[in-house]
Amino acid sequence: MLPPVNISAKIVVLFALVFLLSSIAIVHSGANNLHMHDGARTQDIIAGDVFFEIVDPPELEYTYRIRPAKDFGTSFESASFRVREGKLVPAIPPDACEPNFLNKNDLKGNIVLVERGECSFVTKAINVEQVGGRAVIITEIDSSSDDYDYYIEMIHDKTDRDTNIPAAFLLGRNGHIIRKTLAKLNLPYALINLPVNLTFVAPHEINQPPWLQW
User: Fold this and answer.
1) Which pLDDT score is estimated for 37?
2) What angle do CA 123, 181, 83 make, to 5 degrees?
3) In the chain, which residues have pLDDT < 70?
4) Distance between alpha carbon 207 and the CA centroid of its chain, in Å?
5) Spatial CB neighbours of 106, under 8 Å, sequence gap ≥ 6
6) Under DSSP, is residue 181 helix (H, G, I), strand (E, B) or coil?
7) Contact 53/209 with Cβ under 8 angstroms?
8) I want to staple 56 with a disulfide (CB 3.0 to 4.6 A). Which of 2, 44, 106, 191 is the partner?
């Protein structure tokens, strides 16, 4: 004869198993990762970050995450700022610490890609605005960026200056790869849409670049 089944004990074990499974989430700390959790909404994950997509060249046709400046510049999401197949142009020289750009005619009216370092974020944005740039996206200098840059906040340099264009930091090594790819293809710019509304897109369906870890 089989021993009697302890129903209460089985229920306790079942609930413990369900709790354990519901507590497991796949999380990766990569700099440009969405930090995804099963069941979370995209708008909760991305918080105040903004996304843009490259539509040409094909080698870069992915969705990219940027973090807007914390306390200077204007908003990428204002009603007056909409870029559809606009130009993302790497600045020459790339640090943008002086307004003497070698390709300043190419920057006018476009989104300007510059590198971090040598001067403040505010200085870079002001110099881009001075030559007619519509917005500035700041990137890491090389491909060695790690998890720490996920926590970078572009803050004001405490001077009495400001800028009237949007500014943001491109998380991860995306900026390095964008620059390198454009140079390899001998292209002066990429075509982008900015901003991209991902509110109703599931996190796992966002078309992130393949070189990012999940």
Assistant:
1) 43
2) 55
3) 1-46, 142-151, 213-214
4) 12
5) 87, 89, 188, 189
6) helix
7) no
8) 191
Amino acid at 46: I
Looking at residue 45, its pLDDT comes to 57
Name every residue whose Cβ is closer than 8 Å to that of residue 30 and which is 6 or more positions away in sequence: 147, 150, 172, 212, 213, 214
Q: Rounded to whole angstroms, how far apart are CA atoms 175 and 139?
A: 5
pTM of the predicted model as reported, rounded to 2 decimal places? 0.78
Reported as a single tens digit per residue, the pLDDT across 156-179 is 989 999 999 999 999 778 999 999
Alpha-carbon distance values, 179 to 71, 176, 182, 214 (Å): 27, 5, 5, 23
d(CA 109, CA 157): 25
CATH numeric code, 42-205 = 3.50.30.30
Report the pLDDT value the prediction gives residue 10, as an integer from 0 to 100: 53
Instruction: Give the closest residue to 170 by CA, choosing from 115, 210, 96, 106.
Output: 115
Q: How confident is the model at residue 21, as a pLDDT?
A: 44
Alpha carbon 4 to chain centroid distance?
Answer: 59
**pLDDT at residue 25, as a whole number:** 37
Task: Report the alpha-carbon distance of residue 145 to residue 160 in Å, rounded.
Answer: 31
Residue recorded with tokens 């491909």: 143
Q: What is the pLDDT of residue 115?
A: 95
Q: Is the CB of residue 161 less than 8 Å from the CB of residue 135?
A: no
Domain ranges of the chain: 42-205
